[in-house]
Write a structure and sequence with these properties.
With 210 residues, the chain is of the alpha/beta class. Helices cover 37% and strands 25% of the residues. An eight-stranded mixed beta sheet has the order 1-2-4-3-5-6-7-8, sandwiched between helices.
Amino acid sequence: MATVSIPAGEVRLEGVLELPETPRGVVAFSHGSGSGRKSPRNRFVAAELRRAGVGTLLLDLLTVDEDRNYEMRFDIGLLTERLGAAVRFLAAEPAGSALPLGLFGASTGAASALRVAAAMPKAVRAVVSRGGRPDLTGRSALARVKAPTLLIVGANDHGVIELNEQARDELTHCTRELVLVPGATHLFEEPGTLEEVARLAADWFARHLA
């Protein structure tokens, strides 16, 4: 485990990079609104990815002061810039430069992950969204995504399901799939549902980062 500090414009993003012994790839997490590298849900998923042989980068896309500003949590443009800086950091890191890269986005973080995938098609090999808002990506960016994309939504997350269906239909230039997790609501707090998210994500990255 390595603590990292990633330059991003005038700030530095604090994160944790963890690689298994023989990683098959590395996944950077784009956290949702009001969430960061200490998110228990994303830390759980990250641990399961590492068990499957995939390295993880958990980081805060906003500084402590910025996160106090509610509107900044929904600034998809800023989150995209910050996540792009993390992708470039991984490409320059000796430990991560040779590894295929995936992105895992939760809530509003899904939109920034998809925008980065659209802007950096040679760098991003796969994307997974958990309870995400891919509709905030924008139609033109969704049409430019080439990385295989998995959208995971709780089957009881009404309203968000429809937004993900719309985004799936606008992902016209990549392999894409929408999976509804039975019994799950937005935060996947129901027993066994977050485990299912981790399993689906690990399978997707194992398949597309190979």
